Amino acid sequence: MQIQLPETVHHIIEIIQAAGYEAYAVGGCIRDSILGKKPNDWDITTSAKPEEVKKLFKRTIDTGIQHGTVTVVIEKESFEVTTYRIDGKYEDSRHPKEVTFTSDLAEDLRRRDFTINAIAYNEKDGLIDLFGGIRDMEEGIIRCVGDARERFGEDALRMMRAVRFSAQLGYRIEEKTREAIKELAPTLQKISAERIQTELVKLLVSDHPDYLRIAYETGITAYILPEFDLCMKTKQNNPHHCYDVGEHILHTLSYVDADKILRLGMLFHDIGKPQTLTVDEEGITHNHGHALVGEEMTEKILRRLKFSNEIIDKVKRLVRYHDRDIEPVTKNVRHAISQIGEDIFALLFSVKYADIMAQSGYLREEKLQNLKEVKVIYDQILEKGDCLSLKDLAVSGNDLIAMGMKPGKEIGETLHKLLQVVLDDPGYNQKDYLLSLLPLKG
User: How far is residue 349 from each of residues 163, 209, 240, 376, measured CA to CA in Å?
Assistant: First the structure.
């Protein structure tokens, strides 16, 4: 199999080889190339020691020299070049205490996580696949290199990576690898929230976000997202639903685009249902107030996982308003946009559509028709450029101060009341008219 190496990568490998050392492109870039995908980056492994690599190139950066990695910079492009190594004992489920450099490529490939990531290539020797990675790609399997318990014991995050690669590629996890995850899932508690977050997002924006189910089945979510486990155990006996809460959530994920905010919104939109579950005299389940409870839970979870304030704000608002009924009346839609936020209101159509499609067929057509009518009105409002927030209001705080109003809480309250007038009828958004209404009562 011929792989088209980027010219710069080929150049780096040739320079190292010309100096008498071995060098190969390795890992994910080779996996993606075999699968016909464009690699995000190219990693190079070599028998040359870091100091020897540094002598061969004009510009290098010591990015991880203690672990054998030197970044080679050529024409503003950066490439990691890492010496063949054997990892020592892992004491923190992430980093080896020490590494030993080796001249044996096989030893270097043996330390890697999965067979599909343990393939090397250069144009002189072709593909070096010592652990059956190509075969596993052909069969659609995620399998650890060597003993799965050892690989996961070295870096617990590899368990999440197994599920993530499964979701990205649509592969199944080999049985021994899966069993090792079940056994060692508790060690994920040693992994930083930032690293957990990165893998969770990659899984969610993959082609198979519902493979989060595998993370549940193998015990991963019990340690990174226990709130989701409760959802998987919460029944829904209600005409509007055909799945338990957790399965409903998993089904919604595939109905929205692979966007981080949307997928997180769907993951958490019903997260408050277990806490608000009630059962009436007829055995019908209800979850009144679950959106508000879910909003609070979402903020706590996302902060625990170290998401940015911007993401937290947008996702928790999608959760709060995901089931808000919006009557397809222009005035009502304007008020809804203003309250929910212009920045996320368009996303709410995707959230509501996914929620409906993952429910039972009960009243589905009516729900979809309502959503369609609201969308038509929303588009018309945007086209007309109606005032929807204080920034577009014809009156400002300075205008009120000029009229004698003292700076403070009263100004904000007055502007808000004036905005409600304009949301009812955008034609009222005229400075003289709005000021003529003062003082407002109520």
Answer: 29, 20, 19, 11
Give Rg (Cα) of the chain. 28
Cβ neighbours of residue 152 under 8 Å, at least 6 residues apart? 144, 158, 159, 180, 181, 184, 187
Q: Could you give the residue ranges of the DSSP H alpha helices within 254-344?
A: 260-268, 290-304, 309-321, 330-340
Q: Are 430 and 394 in contact (CB under 8 A)?
A: yes
Residue carrying the six token digits 């008498």 = 20
Contact 86, 111 (CB under 8 A): yes
CB distance 268 to 262 below 8 Å: no
Q: What is the pLDDT along the chain (442 residues), one digit of tens a residue?
A: 789 999 999 999 999 999 999 999 999 999 999 999 999 999 999 999 999 999 999 999 999 888 899 999 999 999 999 999 998 666 655 566 678 999 999 999 999 999 999 999 999 999 999 999 999 999 999 999 999 999 999 999 999 999 999 999 999 999 999 999 999 999 999 999 999 999 999 999 999 999 999 999 999 999 999 999 999 999 999 999 999 999 999 999 999 999 999 999 999 999 999 999 999 999 999 999 999 999 999 999 999 999 999 999 999 999 999 999 999 999 999 999 999 999 999 999 999 999 999 999 999 999 999 999 999 999 999 999 999 999 999 999 999 999 999 999 999 999 999 999 999 999 999 999 999 999 876 5
Beta bridge partners of 90: 96
The candidate with the shortest Cα–Cα distance to 212, out of 154, 271, 153, 287, is 271
Question: Facing residues of 53 across strands?
Answer: none
Amino acid at 188: L
pTM over 0.90: yes
* Planar angle of CA 357, 358, 363, nearest 5 degrees: 55
Per the CB < 8 A criterion, the answer to whether 359 and 351 are in contact is: no
Strands 285-286 and 126-129: unpaired
Cα 19 to Cα 56: distance, rounded to the nearest angstrom:
8
CA distance 108 to 200: 28
Q: Cα 147 to the chain's mean position, in Å? A: 29
- CB 160, CB 203: distance < 8 Å: yes
Give CA–CA dist 263/257, Å, rounded: 8
CB 9 within 8 A of CB 42: yes
Pairing of strands 278-279, 285-286: antiparallel
